[in-house]
């Protein structure tokens, strides 16, 4: 059976850049982008063209940042999509390659972040599970110093982006993928959890971390957009949102304790 033709629209690098500029993306700014390639339509050049369009809009003095998370760098005991047999767990822990920012691929964040991660001159942060990659003059400033026991908190690129006045671009992605909301989880009462992963020097390590979850982030985003200035528009066929990262964090700090309170205690992950 032949593959049906694409429904479009046909999207090009130039169109992406011009539509981003019309939305208000400014040359020289710092932009944290959460993205979905498939939402845009038929992109001539795929993820590479999207990254080129973003960089065109930002100009040589702007910095593009994306999440390059690596959820597979985790304890097989908590895997659920899919789970693996319990009799494999010890062997997996003993043989899992440790995180290497140069070669460990991103997982679950789409193909656009993977294109940024491998872009010439890209910098990537050191956290083995929740890294960010960046291209531009502020890339090192944003990605350096990502503490190994601070996934998305004060010692992560999110806090650096907040201080730099960065904005968030949801490019066909929903608020459930908005990592900025997680920074708020570090500033309100939250459970702690043990997180297992391969150690950089070999073997297995466990660190204590703030427990993070994107549960109800879609509702949080709905209310944020209702109450705060959010630029809304289209790039290709994709719905787009553009807003200051600091606004999102501040709003989530107030919203989460009211609508999704969590006890500040210690939880062991399922074993």
Mean pLDDT metric: 95
Structure class: alpha/beta
Order of helices and strands: EHEEHEHHEEHHEHEEHEEHE
Number of helices: 9
Q: Order of strands across the biggest sheet?
A: 5-6-4-2-7-11-10
Instruction: Kindly report how far apart the N and C termini lie.
Output: 46 Å
The helicity comes to 25-40%
How many E-type strands?
A: 12
Q: Compute the CA-based radius of gyration.
A: 19 Å
Major beta sheet summary? 7 strands, mixed
Shape: globular
Percent of residues in β-strands = 15-25%
In short:
This protein is an alpha/beta fold and 271 residues long.
Please explain how this structure is put together.
41% of the residues are buried. A seven-stranded mixed sheet has the order 5-6-4-2-7-11-10, with helices on both faces. The protein has a three-stranded mixed sheet with strand order 9-8-12. It has helices at 13-23, 46-58, 89-95, 111-117, 139-143, 157-163, 180-185, 217-227, 245-259, and strands at 10-11, 30-35, 42-43, 63-67, 123-124, 132-135, 167-171, 192-198, 204-210, 231-235, 238-244, 266-267. 30% of the residues lie in helices and 20% in strands. The chain has nine helices and twelve strands. The chain is of the alpha/beta class.
């Amino acid at each position: 059976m032949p593959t049906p033709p694409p429904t479009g629209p046909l999207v090009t690098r130039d169109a992406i850049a011009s539509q981003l500029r019309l939305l208000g993306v400014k040359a020289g700014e710092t932009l944290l982008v959460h993205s979905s390639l498939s939402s845009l339509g038929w992109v001539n050049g795929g993820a590479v063209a999207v990254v080129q369009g973003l960089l065109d809009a930002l100009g040589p003095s702007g910095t593009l940042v994306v999440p390059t998370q690596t959820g597979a760098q985790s304890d097989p005991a908590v895997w659920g999509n899919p789970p693996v047999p319990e009799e494999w767990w010890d062997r997996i822990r003993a043989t899992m390659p440790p995180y290497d920012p140069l070669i460990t691929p991103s997982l679950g964040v789409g193909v656009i972040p993977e294109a940024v991660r491998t872009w010439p001159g890209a910098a990537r942060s050191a956290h083995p599970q929740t890294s960010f990659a960046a291209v531009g003059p502020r890339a090192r400033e944003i990605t350096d110093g990502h503490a190994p026991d601070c996934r998305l908190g004060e010692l992560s690129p999110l806090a650096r982006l907040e201080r730099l006045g960065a904005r968030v671009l949801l490019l066909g992605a929903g608020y459930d993928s908005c990592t900025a909301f997680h920074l708020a989880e570090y500033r309100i009462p939250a459970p702690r959890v043990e997180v297992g992963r391969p150690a950089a020097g070999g073997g297995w390590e466990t660190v204590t971390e703030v427990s993070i979850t994107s549960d109800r982030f879609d509702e949080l985003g709905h209310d944020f957009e209702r109450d705060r200035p959010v630029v809304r528009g289209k790039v290709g066929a994709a719905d787009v949102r553009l807003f200051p990262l600091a606004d999102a964090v501040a709003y989530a700090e107030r919203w989460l304790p009211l609508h999704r309170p969590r006890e500040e205690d210690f939880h062991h992950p399922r074993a």
